[in-house]
Design goal:
This protein is α/β, with parallel strands linked by helices. The protein has 2 domains: 169 residues, 3-Layer(bba) Sandwich (FAD/NAD(P)-binding domain); 207 residues, 2-Layer Sandwich (D-Amino Acid Oxidase, Chain A, domain 2), CATH 3.30.9. It contains 14 helices and 18 strands. The longest helix has 30 residues.
């Protein structure tokens, strides 16, 4: 059998898996259901644990062309605007060997797609993966292309088909993700359209009661990405169409969204309400999820490896979902380097064992961050005192940003 790997899904995890496989001398083919790769999404932050991998893949220069390099991360009170603590990001590269960056998700996806193509990965759009069939010797994917189902055979399959992964559903039968009770409202605004006092090249997290706002520069600093994350309920109609709302670009009426935002951010300080008012074209994203990973079986089933949100969807409160997808791809590449088509299942097990506990820890920490960011009453008081006293040391995360 040949050194072929088939990848379901052409998002961040799928493209990263393609690059990793190609670097390990496997021929990778990506099947993406969307007809075209659109400029979708808002911003993502990438810590040094992730940019270190991108640099090792030779993507440091491409990253520098589209990313912003914030100098500080400020934790602020949503009601007073006061800075409670600041983590300097200036010496991140010196401390962890790679920078902390913020960028548009489409730019990250674009540079990964280009790198995958250059590495020889075959990429098919308008190709919907339907089912996987395994035998001890090989694995096959049924893919709907040009109105026909075609079967493709390989030594390995990577399921990188996102949080609503049909392949996970088939292999693990552990139910669909559920609504977490948190909704993200996202907007992008050109810094040039903002008054001077609202422009920023730093990351700010404004923490309120049951809601917080994150802002940071993207597109080399030209735009500001603003996300409000609030606890809330969905309308009955929305709750029944959760997957349709998870398109990165879902939209409600402007008036409806502004009313919800206004409610979520009641009591916010003037600079923050000014910033929110300056943003137009809000998109929303009901955050869905699963429990924390329970074992290696959630990463690998026979000749199929699950990567990214298909394996471990997480709340964005540690800003590591895309990061863990890229770490997954890098760890998979390590095992593929020593793999043959025959011993691939054993190598995949090693990949799963190397990854699942770290992913579970990041998932759990993201949930915990949500509780801290949205704290009320005495817990909020304790949080603010802790941040004022210990600030940067609470926000720096050597276990995450340092070597794995
Ligand atoms: C508000 C918000 C903010 C975030 N901020 C950050 C951040 O700052 N830092 C960070 O690291 N992460 C962040 N994340 C998380 C990050 O965006 C995700 O973890 C990441 O995009 C997951 O990538 P993925 O490739 O696993 O899944 P996806 O991006 O969902 O990609 C899955 C792909 O598979 C395709 N697909 C699905 N089914 C099929 C099928 N049957 N056949 C073929 N193709 C299929 C889909 O079309 C899609 O292209 C954030 C998420 C949200 C919601």
């Amino acid at each position: 059998m040949n050194r072929n790997v088939l990848i379901a899904g052409g998002g961040i995890a799928g493209m990263a898996a393609g690059i990793g496989a190609a670097r390990a001398n496997w021929q990778a083919t990506v099947f993406e259901r969307s007809p075209e790769f659109l400029e979708i999404g808002a911003g993502v932050q990438l810590g040094p644990n992730v940019t270190r991998i991108l640099q090792a893949w030779g993507l440091g220069d491409a990253l520098a062309q589209v990313a912003a390099f914030p100098q500080s991360l400020h934790a602020r009170s949503l009601t007073t605007g006061q800075v409670l603590a600041t983590l300097s990001l200036q010496n991140t590269a010196a401390r962890y060997g790679a920078p902390y960056v913020t960028l548009h998700r489409a730019d990250l996806h674009g540079l990964l797609t280009q790198a995958a193509r250059e590495a020889g990965v075959h990429i098919h759009s308008d190709a919907r993966v339907q089912r996987v069939h395994q035998s001890p010797e090989a694995v096959a994917l049924d893919v709907m292309q040009h109105s026909q189902v075609q079967s493709h055979t390989a030594a390995l399959v990577v399921a990188a088909d996102g949080i609503w992964s049909p392949l996970r559903q088939q292999l693990l039968e552990d139910g669909w993700p559920t609504f977490t009770g948190h909704i993200a409202y996202r907007a992008l605004v050109a810094q040039a359209d903002l008054p001077q006092h609202l422009r920023s090249q730093d990351v700010s997290v404004w923490m309120g009661a049951q809601a917080h706002v994150v802002s940071y520069p993207v597109r080399g600093g030209d735009d500001l990405n603003v996300v409000c994350l609030a606890e809330g309920r969905l309308l009955d109609d929305e709750a029944h169409h959760l997957e349709a709302l998870q398109t990165w670009n879902a939209k409600k009426s402007e008036a409806g969204t502004l009313t919800e935002l206004h409610h979520a951010l009641r009591g916010a300080c003037a600079p923050l309400t000014d910033l929110m008012s300056a943003c137009r074209d809000w998109r929303l994203w009901p955050l869905c999820g699963r429990g924390v990973m329970q074992g290696a079986h959630e990463h690998v089933q026979g000749r199929v490896a699950l990567l990214g949100d298909a394996a471990h969807p997480m709340l964005p409160y540690l800003a590591q979902g895309a990061g863990m997808a890229i770490e997954d791809a890098d760890a998979l590449a390590v095992q593929l380097l020593g793999a043959t088509p025959e011993n691939a299942p054993k190598q995949l097990q090693l990949f799963a064992l190397a990854r699942w506990q770290r992913n579970a820890r990041v998932q759990a920490r993201a949930v915990r961050n949500g509780k801290i960011f949205h704290a009320t009453g005495p817990m909020r008081l304790g949080r603010d005192i802790g941040l004022r006293l210990m600030g940067a040391s609470l926000m720096d995360l050597p276990w995450l940003y340092g070597s794995k």
